[in-house]
């Protein structure tokens, strides 16, 4: 979100500065690696509309990048009959008159030959979905931000932020930076950086595992969609990057960005290995590698976006709850709007910072 905001500010002609505590391209946060899902199906209509608004922004960035960032593979969600989440999501898409196909297990197998779902599976497919090359997306936003004149300070830690004056002062390992407006988008470091706000954020350890199919051509993007088992919360990607990626979208153990255990959970690896071979049974998969990342989750899994209550010249963006990356160019535009204009045309009331403060709500 920070890299996207830097880009959108710089392209508006703002003298924008980005501060990154690690080296650009690091793998110590939540937005690194080879892929993240782009999906247009949600059980909340707001996110369907925001996903649609993000697509042209991704396509624009893609056109400026030297490498492909976004691939429309389609997304296949499936579950056993009676799953409320998938039924509600289908209902929302139909109510909004958005394209969605409902498929039987047999129809899914005919469309995607490697796939073998249980006979009574209820599946749905959306074509305006796929994967984002996440590491390259971040770098593309930063590259374009610099092209428009932004300055980036990497390997620069923020030691303290002084909000006592209208113009925030950032005390860093490289000295002081004074600014008219400040956007704070700290990812899983939000509980520490925004400690004074006592936001109800939970950081969890998440892991992903890659498996190599014997016949890779059948599993490439275009041959196989991104797919998700709504019952188990397991999901997978086509063979992109080092292999076929799998992960568990259920919340992992609570942790912090500074203390996260990056030891791979081999029990979870084995669960995902068994799962992927149960639905893609014709070809054996060999384990390749795994990685750790983090979710920063709010109680309602909605985002946190808005002015800092102690200083209206400071905009906070946090709590993207494991499903936010697909919206990052749009969030960057929204944050740039808020910082430069004080308002945005996009509906973000649902993301207000104070919604968990029962005293203020009363």
Blueprint of the fold:
Layout: H1 2-11, E1 17-19, E2 36-38, H2 45-64, E3 70-71, E4 75-79, H3 84-95, E5 101-103, H4 105-111, E6 122-126, E7 130-132, H5 134-147, E8 151-153, E9 158-162, E10 169-172, E11 175-178, E12 182-184, H6 190-193, E13 202-213, E14 226-229, E15 234-240, E16 243-248, E17 254-255, H7 266-279, E18 285-297, E19 304-308, E20 311-318, H8 328-341, H9 358-361
Parallel strand pairs: 1-8, 4-14, 12-20
Antiparallel strand pairs: 2-7, 3-7, 4-6, 5-6, 9-10, 10-11, 13-16, 13-17, 13-18, 14-15, 15-16, 19-20
Helix pairs in contact: 1-5, 1-8
**In whole angstroms, how far apart are the ends?**
31 Å
Low-confidence stretches: none
Strand/helix succession: HEEHEEHEHEEHEEEEEHEEEEEHEEEHH
Largest sheet: 9 strands, mixed
Quote the average pLDDT: 96
Percent of residues in β-strands = 25-35%
Task: Give the overall shape.
Answer: globular
Give a count of the beta strands, DSSP E runs of length 2 or more.
20
Word description of this protein:
Strand 15 and strand 16 form a beta hairpin. The longest helix has 20 residues, at 45-64. This protein has helices at 2-11, 45-64, 84-95, 105-111, 134-147, 190-193, 266-279, 328-341, 358-361; strands at residues 17-19, 36-38, 70-71, 75-79, 101-103, 122-126, 130-132, 151-153, 158-162, 169-172, 175-178, 182-184, 202-213, 226-229, 234-240, 243-248, 254-255, 285-297, 304-308, 311-318. Helix 1 (2-11) runs parallel beside helix 5 and helix 1 packs across helix 8. With 362 residues, it is of the alpha+beta class. The strands form 5 sheets. Strands 4, 5, 6, 13, 14, 15, 16, 17 and 18 form a 9-stranded mixed β-sheet that branches. Strands 2-7-3 form a 3-stranded antiparallel β-sheet, covered by helices on one side. It is globular, with a radius of gyration of 21 Å.
